[in-house]
Write a structure and sequence with these properties.
The chain has about 300 residues and is α/β, with parallel strands linked by helices. The protein is about 40% helix and about 15% strand. The chain has a single domain, classed as 3-Layer(aba) Sandwich (Rossmann fold), CATH 3.40.50. Strand 1, helix 1 and strand 2 form a beta-alpha-beta unit. The longest helix is centred in the middle third of the chain and has 26 residues, at about 175-200. The radius of gyration is 18 Å and the shape is globular.
Length: about 300
């Protein structure tokens, strides 16, 4: 156990984030809730997403609450390496440092295989490779940050995930949930590998994984579709089984802000097999701590995204 988390920790326990800067990917669901609470805590927040209208609506909603922090929207398409590069270049000209990066945005279970602008399978390309490239783009700023942290979101689905190097882009066999699980396992492995590399090289970056349990967001309706089996379950059982998105954000907020949070740790909800509840140190599946697979995945990711951390 990495640390003792305060019993029933919530967003009200977030320490002041005044003077800290943060990039959060995603404009709705968990991303919106993280951005809201970080702004409330006094941080300087950049909400990054591909939908400018949706992003600016979210910003307007948060600004109306008149919190101590500030928030702005920046366009970023995680399914397009050129967009990620352009975003990185813009932020690097605007800022000298960055303290927190929350790799949150995701797509889930499109029924048919789709690809990103660069030809990657959409889930693997957006959820994992896009965030890998984004972290590398912001890496120079994070190195200059004040006790910098990178929080990368995984999912309970990672438990059944396998990194299939023979079909990493699901070209031979596309099964939506299998591919989603692989992408979320890759996200967790990246979080843990980034910490190992930070420790080895003295980067001073704390890298954590987090997951929101089962939360009421638009991830399923936007991916599999509202009339898919998962979408119907989400609609019918949502109020009972799915926790509010605000609660699903707690593990990520804890990882991003709690003084006690430690690098190389995975955080998730505490109840119902980590489906809901207050934050706790989450269980890590055996395949997620395979250091040889993690190292190979990192190397393959650098080749695919054509970007290196150093």
């Amino acid at each position: 156990m990495a640390e003792n988390i305060k019993r029933n920790w919530t967003a009200t326990d977030i320490p002041s984030q005044k003077g800290r800067s943060v990039v959060i990917t995603g404009t709705g669901g968990i991303g919106y809730e993280i951005a809201l609470e970080m702004t409330r805590a006094g941080a300087e927040v950049i909400m990054a997403g591909r939908n400018k209208v949706k992003g600016e609506e979210a910003i307007s909603k948060i600004n109306k609450m008149k919190f101590d922090g500030s928030i702005c929207f920046e366009e970023l398409d995680l399914a397009d390496l050129a967009s990620i590069k352009a975003f990185g270049e813009r932020i690097r000209t605007q800022r000298k440092s960055m303290d927190i990066l929350v790799n949150n945005a995701a797509v889930m279970n499109p029924p048919q295989r789709k690809v990103t602008k660069d030809g990657f399978e959409l889930q693997m390309g957006t959820n994992y490779l896009g965030h890998f490239a984004l972290t590398a783009q912001l890496f120079p700023l994070l190195l200059k940050g004040n006790k910098p942290r990178v929080v990368t979101l995984s999912s309970v689905a990672n438990r059944s995930g396998v990194i299939n190097f023979d079909d990493l882009q699901s070209e031979i066999n596309y099964k939506p949930m299998v591919t989603y699980s692989q992408s979320k396992l890759a996200c967790l492995m990246f979080a843990l590998e980034l910490q190992r590399r930070s420790d080895a090289a003295g980067w001073g970056i704390s890298s954590m994984g987090a997951h929101p349990g089962i939360s009421r967001t638009e991830l399923i309706p936007n991916g599999a579709g509202k009339n898919s089996p998962a979408g119907i379950i989400r609609r019918v059982l949502g109020p009972i089984l799915f926790q509010p998105a605000a609660h699903g954000a707690w593990p990520s907020l804890y990882a991003a802000t709690a003084i006690e949070a430690t690098g190389g740790t995975y955080y998730g909800p505490s109840r119902m097999n980590e489906m809901r509840g207050y934050p706790k140190v989450a269980k890590i599946a055996p395949q997620a701590i395979d250091v040889k697979v993690a190292a190979r995945l990192w190397e393959e990711s650098e080749k695919m995204t054509k970007i290196n951390f150093i």
